[in-house]
């Protein structure tokens, strides 16, 4: 437990999920608010509370004094009387929300990026299925490596929600110091950008791992943005959103930054490593893996052309060789660059 006096305006916030990103977000908020970080593994949470450091998921970043660590779910809900933040991977969102069913929830923000495997749903659609429309909810996304946020380095995020009250609450709670928080009402656009960029980071990792050069990398990122935009607009997102932080911004970060777990999956594939080995070595979620399949299926259903995503899914799930992935992309028929839909 940590006891710390906060200034007026401090909110009571619980972060549910104690991986790398939940921990970094909880640390950033704890400078100004009463924050409790909850994790489902009680032994790991006790270790974290004793070490004041998330030794497993985010080692080397000592917790600020205002951060309380807990493993009791009811206590975490009671603590987060102003805001709850779901900080698990997409695969954990439905089970986590099921635990919240029938409970008093002030406002709920989720940090996960992806489409749900099996259903092809975005996080806000999962939320609606499980909890209905009564809880104000929103997605916090944008280019943000946990390690950099934990170090207090500058970063810009976007909170997307149809609820202006929720957007204002998150901006008031998080904006300031080295964190800028923009707001958007385009929940679909923000969630699609965050989901698909992970698949494209795997593609860029493959290309870089094969030594294909900076020209190829720039081409993949740019045509990747076209894929994000095609799928996102087909689902109702706005074109401008894909040019912003949660689209182009996060795409650039994840495709080029070696801190990206998804990029590292691509680098590993290019070295000829098996997917299971790469994922085990990572020790963290790589959302682009399940998402590649979800996006391939969804795009096929919607008739949206997503050649890079399909090529990545071929390597991940159909045994295609990384070199073949690149050859397949290069062999496509020529087309107009900006023909609509792009
Ligand atoms: N790490 C980053 O830099 C970063 C930045 C922005 C967004 N994200 C996104 O945030 C999400 C979480 O990423 P991460 O980096 O924290 O992953 P991680 O692999 O570091 O940790 C995942 C955590 O989620 C927990 N978890 C899984 N299922 C759960 C459930 N049902 N209930 C409660 N906890 C559960 C695990 O125990 C683990 O603590 C992902 O969707 C990721 O794309 C990550
Ligand atoms: O490490 P990655 O690839 O999961 O990316 C982390 C964040 O989504 C970057 O914004």
TrEMBL record:
Metabolic or biological pathway, per its Swiss-Prot or TrEMBL entry: Membrane lipid metabolism; glycerophospholipid metabolism
Residue ranges annotated for the Glycerol-3-phosphate dehydrogenase NAD-dependent N-terminal domain, each copy included: 13-165
Residue numbers binding substrate: 113, 261-262
Gene3D superfamilies xref list: N-(1-d-carboxylethyl)-l-norvaline Dehydrogenase, domain 2 (1.10.1040.10), NAD(P)-binding Rossmann-like Domain (3.40.50.720)
Recorded GO CC terms: cytosol
Lineage top rank: taxon: Bacteria
Keywords per UniProt: Cytoplasm, Lipid biosynthesis, Lipid metabolism, NAD, NADP, Nucleotide-binding, Oxidoreductase, Phospholipid biosynthesis, Phospholipid metabolism
Main localization (coarse): cytoplasm
Record's keyword annotation contains Nucleotide-binding: yes
Domain annotation Glycerol-3-phosphate dehydrogenase NAD-dependent C-terminal: ranges: 186-326
Binding residue positions for NADPH: 21, 40, 57, 113, 146, 261, 285, 287
Localization per record: Cytoplasm
Catalytic activity line of the entry: sn-glycerol 3-phosphate + NADP(+) = dihydroxyacetone phosphate + NADPH + H(+); sn-glycerol 3-phosphate + NAD(+) = dihydroxyacetone phosphate + NADH + H(+)
Keyword Secreted tagged: no
Positions annotated to bind sn-glycerol 3-phosphate: 113, 142, 144, 197, 250, 260-262
EC number(s) given by UniProt: 1.1.1.94
GO terms for biological process, alphabetical: carbohydrate metabolic process; glycerol-3-phosphate biosynthetic process; glycerol-3-phosphate catabolic process; glycerophospholipid metabolic process; phospholipid biosynthetic process
Enzyme class at the top of the EC tree: oxidoreductase
GO molecular function: glycerol-3-phosphate dehydrogenase [NAD(P)+] activity; NAD binding
Function: Catalyzes the reduction of the glycolytic intermediate dihydroxyacetone phosphate (DHAP) to sn-glycerol 3-phosphate (G3P), the key precursor for phospholipid synthesis.
Record-linked NCBIfam families: PRK00094.1-2, PRK00094.1-4
Family per similarity comment: Belongs to the NAD-dependent glycerol-3-phosphate dehydrogenase family.
PANTHER family named in the record: GLYCEROL-3-PHOSPHATE DEHYDROGENASE, GLYCEROL-3-PHOSPHATE DEHYDROGENASE [NAD(+)] 2, CHLOROPLASTIC
HAMAP family: NAD_Glyc3P_dehydrog
UniProt protein name: Glycerol-3-phosphate dehydrogenase [NAD(P)+]
């Amino acid at each position: 437990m940590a006891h710390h006096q906060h200034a007026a305006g401090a909110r009571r916030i619980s972060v549910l999920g104690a991986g790398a990103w939940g921990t970094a977000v909880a640390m950033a908020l704890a400078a100004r608010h009463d924050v409790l970080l909850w994790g489902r593994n009680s032994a790991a949470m006790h270790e974290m509370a004793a070490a004041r450091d998330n030794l497993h998921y985010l080692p080397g970043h000592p917790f600020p004094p205002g951060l309380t660590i807990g493993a009791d779910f009811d206590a975490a809900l009671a603590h987060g009387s102003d805001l709850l933040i779901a900080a698990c991977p997409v695969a954990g969102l439905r089970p986590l929300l099921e635990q919240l069913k029938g409970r008093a929830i002030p406002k709920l923000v989720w940090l996960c990026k992806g489409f749900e495997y099996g259903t092809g749903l975005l996080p806000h659609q999962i939320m609606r299925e499980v909890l209905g429309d009564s809880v104000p909810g929103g997605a916090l996304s944008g280019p943000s490596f946990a390690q950099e946020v934990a170090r207090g380095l500058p970063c810009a995020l976007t909170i997307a929600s149809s609820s202006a009250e929720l957007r204002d609450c998150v901006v008031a709670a998080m904006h300031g110091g080295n964190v800028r928080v923009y707001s958007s009402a385009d929940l679909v656009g923000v969630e699609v950008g965050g989901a698909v960029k992970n698949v494209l980071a795997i593609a860029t990792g493959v290309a870089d791992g094969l030594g294909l050069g900076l020209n190829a990398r720039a081409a993949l990122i740019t045509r990747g943005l076209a894929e994000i935009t095609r799928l996102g607009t087909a689902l109702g997102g706005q074109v401008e959103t894909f040019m912003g932080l949660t689209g182009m911004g996060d795409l650039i970060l994840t495709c080029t930054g070696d801190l990206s777990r998804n990029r590292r999956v691509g680098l590993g594939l290019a070295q000829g490593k098996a997917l299971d080995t790469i994922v085990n070595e990572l020790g963290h979620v790589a959302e682009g893996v399940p998402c590649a399949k979800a996006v391939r299926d969804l795009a096929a259903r919607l008739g949206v052309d997503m050649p890079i995503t399909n090529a990545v899914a071929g390597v991940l799930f159909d045994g295609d060789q990384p070199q073949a992935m690149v050859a397949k992309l290069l062999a496509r028929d020529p087309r107009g660059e900006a023909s609509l839909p792009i």
